[in-house]
Design a protein that fits this description.
Layout (H helix, E strand, L loop, with lengths): L3 E8 L5 E7 L2 E3 L9 E4 L4 E4 L1 E3 L15 H10 L2 E6 L10 H10 L6 E7 L12 H7 L3 E4 L6 H14 L3 E3 L4 H4 L4 E2 L2 H6 L3 E2 L1 H18 L3 E3 L5 H12 L4 E6 L26 H13 L4 E3 L27 H12 L3 H16 L14 E11 L18 E10 L2 E4 L2
Parallel strand pairs: 1-4, 6-7, 7-8, 8-9, 9-10, 10-13, 11-12, 13-14, 14-15
Antiparallel strand pairs: 1-2, 2-3, 5-16, 16-17, 17-18
Length: about 425
Amino acid sequence: MSDLICLRNVTLSDGQVQTLWIADGCLITPPDGSPDARVIDGEGGLFLPLAIDLCARLREPGATHKATIASETAAAIRAGIGTVCLPPDTKPVIDQPAVVDWIDDRGRDADVSLKLLGALTEGLAGEALADLDALLDAGCIGVAQPRRLPRASLLRQALQYASGLGCTVHLDPVHADLAGQGVAHAGRPAMLAGLTGIPASAEAIGTAVALELARDTGCRVHLGRITTARAVALIAAAKQDGVAVTCDVSAHQLFLTDESLQGLDPAYRLDPPLRTETDRQALIGAVADGTVDAICSDHQPQDLNAKTDPFPMTEPGGSTLEYLLPAVLTLAQTQGWSHDRVRRLLIDTPARILGLAPPALSPGEPLSGVLLKPTSAPATITQLRSAAGITPFQDIPLTWRVDDVWRAGQHLPCD
């Protein structure tokens, strides 16, 4: 049997330890006898289907000097991510079918599957609705208004429109007027550094508005990149009331707080901003109790030029794709989350939010999956495949690493 691989003693998300046999890129039943096979020792490792990232910016079109679809999807697949959802704030904005077609064409040979969100409003300016029907017909899997909410009357109209189309609306629930031109959480570290703050109330009020309008219209709403305890409490209450809402958090928000601002390192200039330790603990608790449905990378690659000015003048974001799986497994280890919960946070629930079939490990089908292993000691990732190497994870020790990846039957060792 040609190209036979024995992936020995790996743990699956249900806790079973198995030996997987792979022939010509496909899972097979264990062969008889002692066939000649290449052995990969998976002892202590976890094998999962490829992850689904609910929010990652690839900087193309519009900022290819920072990153490209090719560079970031190559980084994503080697990080165990098989599907990436792109928000519509590219340049040009994804508010016309022609832009959808252009990105689809560029992404046809990408290393991962790209799923696009169309713009909720024209140019994302928040003044007039985009042609949502045309964007969905062109292939968008939903629509979104990233960064800031539009005015409430327009948002209600948009949710009514989307509800009639059976479409999920992805929102960053931030009240634009309260957020203003803030560059950090409005707390003590920002005050001491003289930085303009974004108060927690900007997210709490934005979340309340989005939830009440979702309740009013019956539209499915996904709230992305939640950062505050107050927003988590509002979402939990709305879920209990039957509001059709899901939400995610960024992996780095579960590790970092606004105390990182003390050195004014532009790597921590993020949007949404890092919040307080109380908020961080509330987010972790909300992941544990199911209020938070998924964890994403919120990948926003920035080149060196975008991070060389004084902190308030730098551009927000950093490269985070390659930390998504190791970070979540590190947290799972410290918080006592099961591997099944990790799978739900990174794979099954993101698939449901995007309206996709959850990926499975099926015998006879080309294998797509990732083998992760614990590290001998906590370590930082020192070499990124992302075109932009600036990251808020720069000093965070992780206890898991991506070891091997299979994509549509192709084996991609990651060392």
